[in-house]
Amino acid sequence: MKLNKYTWIFVGLIAAVYLGTLIWVRLTNPVYLQKNMYQTWENSYVMHPKSDQSFVNTSKNNDHQNPVALSESQGYGMLITVRAAQKGWANQKDFDRFVNYWLAHRDYVGDQRQTETYLMSWRQYYNRHHQWVNDINSATDGDVYIAMALALAAKQWPKDATYYRSLAKNLSDDILTYEYNPQTGALTVGDWVTRDSKYWQLMRTSDVMPDIFMTLAKLTGDSRWRTVNNTMLDRLADLSRLHHTGLVPDFAWITRDAAKPVKPNAISTKYDGDYSANACRVPMMLATSNNPKARKVLKKMLRFFSHQQYITAGYSLRGKRLVKYQSASFSAPIFFAVSHHRGEGYDNLFDSQKYIFSKPLTHKNYYDATLTVMAALEGLN
Known about the structure:
Distance between the termini: 47 Å
Pfam families: Glyco_hydro_8 (PF01270)
Largest sheet: 3 strands, antiparallel
Family: Belongs to the glycosyl hydrolase 8 (cellulase D) family.
Protein name: Glycosyl hydrolase family 8
Strand content: 5-15%
GO molecular function, one term: hydrolase activity, hydrolyzing O-glycosyl compounds
Order of helices and strands: HEEEHHEEEEHHEEEHHEEHHHHH
Oligomer: single chain
Keywords: Glycosidase, Hydrolase, Membrane, Transmembrane, Transmembrane helix
């Protein structure tokens, strides 16, 4: 049957609409996924102990009857919220609730713990008497995340930029006063590590955050942040050179000019000297830096991962799998890193690690969910 010109026009219009729909879905799906993941995370993990305060629940299986707050998760919560605000899915009040909770749970130092700092106490939880306990001591990674979130907030809400920058500077000063080792030029793992501590020369590899360090250097004008950046990248590079894999351990002992992995159970687990639950964040921490040393360390790691049939939740530094299962908290940082380095030879990882978005965000694992949301917000663009 011969079709007349009107039929062809109609067919053409249908085809154009269909093609347009496919293009629209392709372009908007990442945005829908980002928004859905953020909102699912916020509804599942963010708790409000007071109307003007928020924290991220890190308890096992996300138990809302016995929640646990960490300074690490507070920093993540603030970073995620300001990123969501940039996309129009969160507002300044959402962010300020996290700020208020942090300010209400600052750590004290001194012989009698008489001096209040801007560092956050590392953990809060209900004790057996159902009292909300504020544990002493700080954790450096959480404090650095919070400082970076405040720097981003100053750009996001310029009317209150002075307030956020002031808080960031105060926090920065305390990080460099109480969480910095001037002998090694690196950050310690918390304010509990003093000169007479056996952990004085301990470095957590996931605390190497060159992009954040340089942001704080510019914001504060304090040259020590440049020292921290150069020193910690040098030590990370030392660790990267030890094995053909380029993998780095959760923790390392460092001096002014060298680094070596710690032994098992030196700090917390038998995997302390392996690429495990802390080091898995390293690709994410290095991803946005243009520093040649950071890029070299990252590319060596990505090269190793790109030759793996599938990526599991932990490796020895020589590349032996520690477990057989996969984990989003290991895959999300790799996806995040590769998303910032497309076309550099690791795009197979971009495709393979997208599995973390193929199923609903977990409601039972704070770490997996949080790192996945961070990867979605900055990697699915």
